[in-house]
Amino acid sequence: FFGYFCFEMKVVQPVLAYLAFLNPVHSFVNTPLSSRAGSVGRKIFALSASSRSSSEIVPSFKVMDMVQRANELDEQGESIMHLEVGQPVQAAPPQVLEAAKNALVEDRLGYTSALGISELRGCIASSYGKYPDVGGGKTIDPNRVVVVTGSSAGFLLVFTAAFDAGDVVAIPTTCYPCYRNILGALAVDTASLPLNDDFKITAKELMEEVERRKKSGEKPIKGLILSSPGNPTGACLNKKEIYELCEVCEREGIRFISDEIYHGIVYGDLKNNEATALGCEAGRHSAIVINSFSKYQCMTGWRLGWVVLPANDPELADAINRLAQNVYINAPSLSQRAALALFNDDSVTKELDERVEEYGRSRQVVLDTLKELGLDGQGRVAPAEGAFYVYVDLGDEARGDAPGFCMRLLEEAGVAITPGNDFEDAEGGLGNKRVRFSYAGGIKVVTEGMRRFKEFWPKWVGGEGQ
Q1: What are phi and psi of 157, to 5 degrees?
Q2: pTM given for the model
């Protein structure tokens, strides 16, 4: 289905023809090329005959639209406080930068295996020993680890390998927008699961949808993806909740994809009690874990992440490998070499944990300001237990126009935040009254940004400038 994806994205016809013959879709992985090429090509071109334009298939990532306008104002000399994007203000740790410098001089930096360099895969596998439930401090098998070009590539590879067009994948009504957008581009249907009062999806919410579909005769759910800590909510699943999800998914034949990109960025009692889907038997057997070096390790632009595949699924592993070979060959060699410096060095972990402590102080500034403005009522502010976001429901004060509110806040007060439309199921309408604050930009930026927000809010509520 990369052929279909490329066609809709207006990629040239030869690329479409080439990718059609690669056919990474999981249901064809063991079919001989001679027998599968024709049927795949027909399926791809039949889908591509749709009258939908590429803009209808893949909506814009609205936070990046806000970033673009905020950067334009920056370039014009305006003072802009960036609370819109989930990007740590700090650079990668010094040890990583030094390793990158050395690699530039000493290493050829040629192609690596599509799965990643063995040493890095081994380090990632060993890092799971910090979770006692993974195996009493033992490592996982490095052969299960695939190094990818950021978690975004991980989503694309996994979605393409694990699902066919027309399959149904469950996602939270409030979630990272690229889940919905990438699945839609691959012609995979989504089922939106409403969050519970704690801003979470648990086994209870999943089973309600499973049973509803059984009774109504609708297509069954083939997959589930969610993140913990969550983006944009910051809500975290505890061990019991994530293990129950793994068990339900294994029992019901649902492929569970656990997005753990914000692991390491949690607050309070969660600091030493984070849960991974790999911590229970059902998760080790059937869950897929996706993670990244972008957030906790502060390496957003290095474009490096990883996928941990199920223990006993060689067909999926083979499909992922062949997809990676054909889509980007390998994750950036320089990034892989540099990332090795993150492991087996307590000073690196100490520095990264100190950065999380600063996020915690910035988080409190946001929460305190919202409380002062009376925006902290029940159900208005998501838990913010992890990641570096506070997600807020502005209620009627949003006037049903969160994008308009965010744009005025940017243009008049110089504060960039993100409208909730990015994260919400469009049918629910909640995106028009919700906004996300990112406090990844440092305590000074957050403090000044929230001071300006506090000044702007009464002007907006009072109708000034309408």
Answers
A1: -65, -50
A2: 0.88
